[in-house]
Amino acid sequence: MSETVTVRDRIEDLLGEIHGLAVTRQQQETIYAVVSHSTTWDEIEEGVEADIPVLDIRTVVIDLDSESVSLSDNGIWTPQDPDSSEALTRVLGRTTNDLLGNIQPDADPLETAAIDLDPELLLARELEIEEEISEQHSDKMRRHGGIDPAREWGYGASPPPEIERVVERLEEIGEDPGDHCTRLVWGKKEPMTRKSRPIDELLGNYGIELLPQSEGLIALDIDYPEQFPEDADLPDTLEISSPHGGDEQRHIMLHCRTKDDLANELGAWAIQGVSWGDLWIGDRYLVGPGSQLSEYGCDEGEHDRGEPGGCSECEDPEGGYYEILEDRPIATVESEDILELIDQSSGYELRDRGADPDLPQEDNEEPEQLEDDLEDDADRAVTVTCDSCGSALEEDERKTVELLGETRTICRGGCDR
Amino acid sequence: MSPDISEYPDAVDRIVGAEVPPDATTDRQVMDALRGAEAPQINRQVAQNLRDSVLTEDKILDAIDSSGELPTEGEIDSMSEIADQYDMSDRQQEVAEAVEQRVVTREQIDRALSDSDPSRTDEPVFREDIEEAVEDAIGRSEMRGASEEQVIDEAASELGAPSRQEFQAAQARTISESSDTSPAEVIDNPTEIDGIGAGTAEQAVPTIRDESGEIVAVSGANETVGQAIADEIGAEYRSLGELQESIDLEQSRGRAEVTIDSNTVREIPL
């Protein structure tokens, strides 16, 4: 059974007698109006038993299509006295002037109905509050599985404690950690940006950038340890394991004094296709030890990228970690040591590097020309990485698109993850 | 000036999560959802800022257009990931799938053209066949990144496919531009051949030569003369009708060649 009532009647049914109404917006058949009325605290807030008089101001939604009037839950209330109401009126008046750009230079933005309280002093008063970190979606972190809630850094508080060891190892070889460390997306191994940050700005997962420079960090990405040459002559060094493949699958970190020679010889800052994995010289990054993958960041197993459901290791709140496997100083090697390793390995064919003294000498101009090209990063074909997966790309492997006003590079054909 | 709401990921996440369903994948759908929201803080400016910053099909389509090529499904996924500034995996998936449904992808064209690959069939493939296959593949999808003409041109070049008319013209030119050759030009003692006298030894017949100038086919009304020349050079004497039928099309990547008995007579520009 229905009855015919006016909109005013309906509002007063819901709120009682109103002091005033201001229409703020109309969206086709839906009208929004702010209404003020007098009531008591227990009428507007659940669980309160005090019948203290209050002035309540809230939005009323009038839907002419469905012929309904409803109250929003965005109300404000103040004590029901004329001083409060007047202070509120002045603030709204000030707000109106602000929006219209009509502010008088000496107009006071602050009002008070409390006689003994100076609002200027109130605003200047200092408080100790817990700092909120919003950049890594703290709320969302808590909803994702596979991150140990006992770890503070998992909620954007600080980087993993393992960072301290990484800092020490980098400083031992004269590298500035702030030049190498970047933030990764929470629970994942993808970069937030490739921009390096001071250590105290790191939150959660972090990356260690291998920079395209003449000297510095390089890394061996061992995916197939059984293919690694048994007689490889490399010094003991810092090694980092990933959550997958046991400890044998790992990253070996080294420092190379002649990185540009190495890149020059290989013609790239990173090479793939070596039987045991990849060699990274520059323009790539390692996931730092202590970083933890969530089920959203795991790329093992049969699930769609971006969907939860990774491997059992990453789904486990106590698993999914990148760890320091061998805590050793980062050893220094020369480019020849790495080239020797590549020579011993299958899967990647080095160019003919050395001249046999019994054979006619070959023209040596090409390496020098490449060396000049190496200094001109902008023209090098392989210093570009995919903005989606971070892979280093040769010229014929990349595609350039304009996305959200920026020029971006992606893997031609899509990322092979 | 008040800060842009797009600078507050938590706020964007909260508002979009509450007001915009994941299947609202276009700018317009997002805008409609936001403008219809009850939250009074979402005014037109806020709604526009949100629409401009969250991932939608429109942004991916613009990126595809800028690339100048048809996208692959993998590239659509990559672009969606980059454009998702707020790590909204549900939306990312919906938008990527919506774009893949909406546009013609490289995979669709490759599938359509795989049946047209001349290396898999005994029949020549012409541009018209490619046009039909591409049109079928497009269906009701949008061509973004490249025009239909561009795709057809690329496929025709890749498969070595001229139009039927071009091939027919090449056939006709092959016959009309035949060279006249007499037995005396190619046979040391032509009169020793039965039926070839002093007069017929100088009688020329039409011959087709390959790119290097070698005779690959002989024709002409005088079968005795023609056969004598054909026997001498190891070619085949054919009537005009038979000659026309023997002209083939050899197709490879970037090349379309008119051939007779696998000898290339001329190339058809693609």
Short synopsis of the structure:
Chain A has 417 residues and is of the alpha+beta class.
What features would you describe in this structure?
The complex is a heterodimer of chains A (417) and B (270). Chain A is of the alpha+beta class and 417 residues long. Chain A has helices at 7-15, 41-44, 82-100, 119-124, 138-143, 163-172, 177-180, 259-266, 312-315, 335-344, 365-375, and strands at 18-27, 30-40, 53-63, 68-71, 76-79, 181-183, 206-210, 216-222, 239-241, 250-256, 270-274, 277-280, 284-287, 323-326, 331-333, 384-385, 392-393, 398-403, 406-411. In chain A, strands 8, 9, 10, 11, 12, 14 and 15 form a seven-stranded mixed sheet that branches. In chain A, strands 1, 2, 3, 4 and 5 form a five-stranded antiparallel sheet that branches. With 270 residues, chain B is an alpha+beta fold. Chain B has 13 helices and seven strands. In chain B, a hairpin with a 2-residue loop joins strand 5 and strand 6 (255-260). In chain B, helix 8 crosses helix 9 (148-159). Chain B is rod-shaped and about 110 Å long. The chains are: A alpha+beta (417), B alpha+beta (270).
Structural class of chain B: alpha+beta
Order of helices and strands of chain A: HEEHEEEHHHHHEEEEEHEEEHEEHHEEEE
Mean pLDDT of chain A: 78
Estimated radius of gyration of chain A: 32 Å
- Major sheet of chain A: size, sense and barrel closure? 7 strands, mixed
What is the CA–CA distance across the termini of chain B?
59 Å
Query: In which order are the strands of the major sheet of chain B placed?
Result: 1-2-3-4
Q: Give a count of the beta strands of chain B, DSSP E runs of length 2 or more.
A: 7
β-sheet strand percentage of chain B: 5-15%
Mean pLDDT of chain B: 88
State which percent range the strand residues of chain A make up: 15-25%
Quaternary status = heterodimer
Structural class of chain A: alpha+beta
Please work out how many helical segments of chain A DSSP would assign: 11
Percentage of helical residues of chain B?
40-55%
- Please count the beta strands of chain A (DSSP E, at least 2 residues each): 19
Rg from alpha-carbon coordinates of chain B = 32 Å
Shape of chain A: elongated
| Low-confidence residue ranges of chain B | none
Main sheet: strands, sense, barrel of chain B: 4 strands, mixed
